[in-house]
Structure formats: C-alpha cells, structure tokens
C-alpha cells in the first residue's frame, strides 16, 4: 500500500514520531513517503491567515497518516488550514496523531484529534485510528510506542501494493 505520512512539525517532536511510524510501516512492506507541511508563518492564529510554502498533494496515496502538534488546547491552525483546503479524495483509510506539551489528553489532544478526524471525514478520508503523545509525560516513550503500534496495526492486514 502506498501511504502518505503528512506532518506539520514546529519543534521536530511530531516529525520524530512520524519517522518512527514510517519505519514501522516500511517494515510491513508498505511504500511510505514522509512529507512536511510548511507554513510561511507558523505563528498564524487563524487558519485563514495561513499560507503554505510546502503543501503535500495526497491524491497519489492509497492511505494517509496525518500528524500535527496541538496548539492552544486545540487543533493547530496550520493543519486545520491544510485539511480544509484539500480536495475531496474519495474514500481512503487514514489515521491521525497529535503531539502536545501538556500531560493529559483532555488538555487539547482529544479536541484536536476530534477536529482533525472531522475535517478528514469531510474530505472522504476514513479515520480508523488516533493517538496522542504528550512530550512532557514521563510515559512519553511508551506513548510513542503505542502510537506507532496502533497505526501499524491499522495497516497490518491491508493488501500491500
């Protein structure tokens, strides 16, 4: 299966989780491409203020994994703008994950994932799994492992291209 790993990362934390996910999916035999969403101004407060310098095209992928950091207890404006501007792609399996500084999922992670999943559904993506990694948690490494394992499991029984 050709999987696009589409990531927005400001500090590199989200990117490092995506690299671990990509490595696990490649071990399963999938063709994985890791692509970065880059905004001209990462500090934009509203999605309508975001302009992109790098905006991955997802149409060639059979499935997607989308990752982004939480910002302000909610979905990051950059990933929200990116998902909002995507064309409808038909039904494709997808997974979403977020990284966050705060330790508890209810401190923005749950809300960010719910909004990401809703935006994905609006574009025809079938969100099959979600994960949260808290960077300040003492269990961060275990959370990364669970994130990787849960996404890896989603695509384990799928036919590989």
Q: What's this model, at a glance?
A:
This protein has about 160 residues and is α/β, with parallel strands linked by helices. It is built from 4 helices and 8 strands.
Structure in words:
About 35% of the residues lie in helices and about 30% in strands. By secondary structure, it is of the alpha/beta class. Strands 1, 2, 5, 6, 7 and 8 form a 6-stranded mixed β-sheet that branches. A two-stranded antiparallel sheet has the order 3-4. The chain is globular. The model has no long low-confidence stretch (mean pLDDT about 90).
Distance between the termini: 4 Å
Strand content: 25-35%
The topology string of helices and strands comes to EHEEEEEHEHEH
**Would you count the extended β strands for me?**
8
Low-pLDDT regions: none
Main pleated-sheet profile: 6 strands, mixed
- The helix-and-strand class reads alpha/beta
Work out the helicity level: 25-40%
Helical region count? Answer: 4
Average pLDDT confidence is: 90
Radius of gyration, taken over Cα atoms and rounded to an integer in Å = 14 Å
Give the overall silhouette: globular
Set down the secondary structure blueprint.
Layout (H helix, E strand, L loop, with lengths): L1 E6 L5 H15 L3 E6 L1 E2 L12 E3 L8 E9 L2 E2 L1 H9 L6 E9 L8 H14 L2 E10 L5 H15 L7
Parallel strand pairs: 1-2, 1-5, 5-7, 7-8
Antiparallel strand pairs: 3-4, 5-6
Helix pairs in contact: 1-4, 2-3
